[in-house]
């Protein structure tokens, strides 16, 4: 996603009549603990300067996750990074939005109107807008069409050795997503490697990748060159 992408986001407790986040949990009284039902609606659009096409939708997704409240408040930052990992949002967005999500979640949990509820709905809507500049796009296409464009440079050994290993800890049996290199699932309790851009991979997968390319497979974040 472009570095100059602008983000607009909203966080709220959805009402039952909101059809776009109308996901219910049957037999919620049988859950072992109180949980957030977290809805993420993500849209990425291209802002064009052409008068006939002001915006073009590049990506849109609606996902829902059942997350135990205790785990959410104990490890909320890492949980939200994992939830947002497939969207490719920038670190600046995470730094701004994650504390706001945690704050709204705390308000929802403390709201007397929610007393006795086992499942607390929490919705986040994100709109990412990337500007389109025709002259820059033409230059990019010309650069990428040259023979040199297909040559990749590996990341430095020190950068690879310095990669952080983290354990996915969200409580309960929850599928986080998949390693976008091998496409195998990333599960709760699994040790994974996190790049500085916050995207998660199996360590063997990302090490082999960075030995040939210094760019994150998802967002093209640039690791230090060898």
Automatic annotation (TrEMBL):
One of its GO terms (cellular component) is cytoplasm. InterPro entries: Znf_RING, Znf_RING-CH, Znf_RING/FYVE/PHD. The keyword Thylakoid does not apply. Residues 179-220 form the RING-type domain. It is an enzyme of class 2 (transferase). PROSITE patterns: ZF_RING_2. Keywords: Metal-binding, Zinc, Zinc-finger. GO terms for molecular function: ubiquitin protein ligase activity; zinc ion binding. GO terms for biological process: protein ubiquitination. Pfam families: zf-RING_2. CDD domains: RING-H2_PA-TM-RING. This is RING-type E3 ubiquitin transferase. It comes from Cucurbita maxima (Pumpkin). The lineage of its organism: Eukaryota, Viridiplantae, Streptophyta, Embryophyta, Tracheophyta. The gene is LOC111487409.
């Amino acid at each position: 996603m472009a570095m100059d992408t602008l983000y607009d986001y909203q966080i709220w407790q959805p009402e039952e009549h909101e059809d776009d986040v109308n996901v219910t949990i049957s037999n919620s009284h049988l859950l072992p603990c109180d949980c957030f039902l977290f809805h993420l609606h993500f849209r990425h659009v291209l802002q064009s300067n052409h008068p006939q096409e002001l915006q073009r939708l590049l990506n849109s997704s609606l996902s829902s996750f059942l997350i135990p409240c205790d785990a959410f408040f104990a490890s909320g930052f890492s949980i939200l990074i994992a939830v947002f990992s497939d969207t490719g949002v920038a670190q600046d967005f995470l730094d701004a939005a994650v504390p706001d999500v945690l704050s709204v979640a705390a308000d929802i949990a403390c709201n007397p109107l929610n007393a006795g509820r086992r499942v607390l709905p929490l919705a986040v809507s994100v709109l990412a807008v990337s500007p389109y500049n025709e002259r820059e796009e033409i230059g990019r296409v010309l650069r990428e069409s040259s023979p040199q464009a297909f040559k990749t440079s590996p990341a430095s050994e020190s950068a690879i050795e310095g990669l952080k290993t983290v354990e996915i800890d969200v409580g309960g049996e929850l599928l986080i997503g998949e390693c976008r290199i091998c496409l195998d699932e990333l599960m709760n309790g699994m040790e994974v490697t996190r790049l500085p851009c916050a995207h998660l991979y199996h360590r063997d997968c990302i090490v082999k990748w960075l030995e040939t390319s210094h760019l994150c497979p998802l967002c093209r974040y640039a690791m230090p060159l060898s």
